[in-house]
Amino acid sequence: MAGKKEYYVIIIGAGPAGLTAAIYCGRSGLRTLIVEKTVEGGQILKADIVENYPGFPEGISGFDLMGKMKAQAEKFGAEFVNEEVIKLIAHSSKLIAVNSIGGSKYFSKAVIIATGANPKELGIKGEAELTGRGVSYCATCDGPLFKNKEVIVIGGGDAAVGEAVYLARFAKKVSIVHRRDRLRAAEVLQDRFLKNEKGQVIWDSTAIEVLGTDRVSGLKIKNLKTGREEMIPGQGVFIYVGLKPNSDFLKEGPKLDEKGFIITNEDMQTSIPGIFACGDIRKNALKQVVVACSEGAQAAFSCLRYLENAH
Ligand code: NAP
């Protein structure tokens, strides 16, 4: 294609799904651009260790794994820019314009959206005010700051329990506050946490307020069965209550579900021809690195087929 900012494929988001799509598109000889808002790697960068990605029996850090994926995408010719996309526009019947903050415009015949999802906030009193001052959404980033301190983890899924196990390496006590009487996390993670002498679970309880003025000093919780409220001390509060999709820029774009995840068919095709989606941003995706990679490969294949037939 002629023109410096024209590509065959633009991939938005450089997590496992986007980077895998870039490997497949680049290796097929398509001029491919990846536009990433922050740093390449996505959510999994925050994982201290990834134990369930095949090929690494001893586990690999999220940082190392994503470094390898980026290097592989670069090897096959993918170009990268770090910009935030704000809009996709059907520029002509055959070109899509990708507009980013700062006024850049890139054009392509097809787009693959792989923008993933970010941690949800709880929306309780003190949470926003004390974020960065004891409230965190990333144990790998902030865990080492809590050596010999007491920390509280909110949530009961893989992220909460896995990160609670990690926090127990540093903290002197780790309390999980969970709203039910059963954890949702994989058994292997539950076992690891429940066997750790520094760990405890406070069952059937919801967080009401993060306490503290300059820094976190504790959490006010309420037992949902008895209605009893109590304060638990802690210098860190780590919140892992699920994910919200990064799809705000798609208001006029492909169809989303009620939560904002992109609806696709099994070929990763969205409601708009030439626009595909893969990974955590997709409705019903199993949120695992290996699945994001698989969907990235499928999106790239579908994109190739679309380009062969449409142009
Ligand atoms: P998740 O699986 O959706 O779990 C969210 C947890 O937060 C649930 O325990 C939920 O409680 C609780 N929760 C939700 N809203 C809440 C609220 N308002 N107040 C209190 N608690 C609330 O989310 P996740 O753990 O972030 O994981 C997201 C996805 O990534 C999952 O598919 C997970 O399997 C995957 N993941 C995988 C790994 C791994 O394979 N090692 C690691 C991390 C994440 P309930 O249980 O009562 O619903």
Q: Mind explaining what this structure looks like?
A:
This protein has 311 residues and is α/β, with parallel strands linked by helices. The chain folds into two domains: 6-118 and 243-310, FAD/NAD(P)-binding domain (3-Layer(bba) Sandwich); 121-239, FAD/NAD(P)-binding domain. 23% of the residues lie in helices and 28% in strands. It has six helices and 17 strands. The chain has helices at 16-27, 62-75, 139-142, 158-167, 187-195, 289-310, and strands at residues 6-12, 32-36, 79-82, 85-90, 96-100, 105-113, 117-119, 135-136, 150-154, 173-177, 199-202, 205-212, 216-223, 229-233, 236-239, 243-245, 275-277. The strands form four sheets. Strands 1, 2, 3, 4, 5, 6 and 17 form a seven-stranded mixed sheet that branches. A five-stranded parallel sheet has the order 8-15-9-10-11. Strands 12-13-14 form a three-stranded antiparallel sheet, with no helix packed on it. β13 and β14 form a beta hairpin. The radius of gyration is 21 Å and the shape is elongated. The model has no long low-confidence stretch (mean pLDDT 94). Bound molecules: NADP nicotinamide-adenine-dinucleotide phosphate. NADP nicotinamide-adenine-dinucleotide phosphate binds at residues 52, 122, 154-160, 162, 179-180, 184, 206, 240-243, 287-288. Residues 52, 122, 154-160, 162, 179-180, 184, 206, 240-243, 287-288 line the site of NADP nicotinamide-adenine-dinucleotide phosphate (NAP).
